[in-house]
Amino acid sequence: MDIPKDKLLWIYERMQLIRVFETRVSTEFGKGKIPGFVHLYAGEEAVAVGICANLTDADYMTSTHRGHGHCVAKGVDVRGMMAELFGKATGICKGKGGSMHIADMDKGMLGANGIVGGGPPLACGSGLTAKTNGTDQVTICFFGDGASEQGTLHESLNLAAIWKLPIIFVAENNGYAESTPAHYHCSVENIADRAAAYNMPGVTLDGNDLFAVYEAAHEAVARARAGQGPSLLECKTYRHYGHFEGDAQTYKIAGENERYQNELDPIKRFTDAVLSRGLVSEAEMADIDGQVNAAIDEAVKFAEDSPFPEVQETFTDVYVSY
Amino acid sequence: MSSVGIIANPRAGKDIRRLVAHGSILDTQEKVYIVRRAILGIQGAGANEVVLFPDPANIFTKALSGIENELRLTTRFLEMSIFDEASDSTRAAQLMCEQGVACVIVIGGDGTNRVVTKGSESMPLVPLSTGTNNAFPQFLESTLAGLAAGYYAVRHFSPETCTRPTKRLNLYRNGTLEDIALVDAAVCDYQFVGARAVWEAERLKELFLTQGQPTNIGLASIGGSLHPISPADDAGLYVRFGGDIRSINAPIAPGMVVPVSIQHHGLMELGTRIPVTFTPSIIALDGERELVVNADDRWEVELSWDGPRVLDIEKVMDAARQPTE
Questions:
Q1: pLDDT at A322
Q2: Fewer beta carbons within 10 angstroms: which end of chain B, N or C?
Q3: Hey, are the CB atoms on B28 and A195 less than 8 Å from each other?
Q4: Chain B closest CA to A312's CA: distance in Å?
């Protein structure tokens, strides 16, 4: 399929927004301005954006502890996100979720998740909701290579298959579960190989190639909207940063980071492809770069200037009464 | 020393055609079993050594770990860097060739054989099908492939009698050889290489074939429906798509039989360069989008007999029945 120019520009803007957001979070975290932990998504932009370029705000998404990129790709406001990371009252969850629990129901973002493998059961819930209500909403369930060994994922794959739910399970295989290489903890080389056991299509993709991810997501989303059930897409990708900020990354192979940050970098590959085909101009990309940098500067200032939540708000919105 | 090589493509059988068509997921474990049987076949023929591609999926390590107690021949991994790219297979074939390996079993599809061919030079291939749309490799139990490859290495059978030549397509960009294909080169109007596979018939603009038979699946099936060309024929086929002159039904992917509009088709003669007329475009080689064709580039396609030599399994097995001198 072809991607129209306005969509190509949106894709570039979202990938750059994720990259600059994460780079800035790394800096601000280093200054001690962000409490708790942050797990940065830089390097994996083609996955989140390639998938979300096929969605609407009405579609659902479940995320992971490395969820900033998913949020940005789904359209969550970066000012609210940055304020959330800073723990401020103006944050998207009023400063009480932090990095690992950002949620924005208006965008169908059901939440980042501090529990590895916590997202798939939630995805079955939103998938069942859409199916029961007879809408054409799909759910994207992001999970990592570490979560691929969790029972929650396997139970959810089975549920989604027997109920024929409109879910696209997206394995973001960045090669390491924290510091453990995938070949050590995973019985199969390709997570998508497991799809056959759950009677659904499984595809292994170059997750650093925006176009490969976009095409596969386009087909999987169309299939789900048409009532044909779930799919499993495995995107082989790489995180430029460590598992968390402060991770010395001694488990990575010498030269690996450099290779992925240069020749295999998803934004560079996207940029080279669209420029060489004359689909987007350098000036248009430079314009976007300027807007993205300004947006992140403004988001940090907004977060810094915002107040912390009041003490009496501690338990508000934290527990839900049924 | 009688030495046989094995190269397996860890990526074969996993692309988007599982989603858009009805391709099977060929999991890595199945490839492990295929490799095990091939190694035991090679050993059964009496070969001394099997040389293995250090694939990033560890197919060979897993294969060996299941047959340690049965192995009598030497197993050796190539010493090479792995980048998890197609060029790894090309480099592996080059090293095997340099190290005097008699022949190499290739486990993959048309595309895998294409990249191995780039490095194999005169070393014959034993192509085993595991890919999705395959015309070049054959479906064969890997034990037999291993036996035949082993006999070829041990008995020093003549390449002239026990292998057969194959055709290939040479793709020239502005007069310089840029790439090759063993079965098909399809000019498509995709924007990008993207998910690589070709499954939308309306995207096809031109097609060059070394072979095309009614029993083929994939783009070669189009040739099989129009004007069958066998692997042994001194000709290829050129097809231009579009218009409403003629429509055929072709199985261009597993479970996907679609109408294809044919504007023109004709034989390709050996040694004649045919220009690519649809630009800008993407050219898919052996079923995978590969080359970006810009509007100001001049591309031509030529048919030749410069493809790899392929082991003739029946002739090898027949020769192996004869007592050794």
A1: 66
A2: C
A3: no
A4: 52
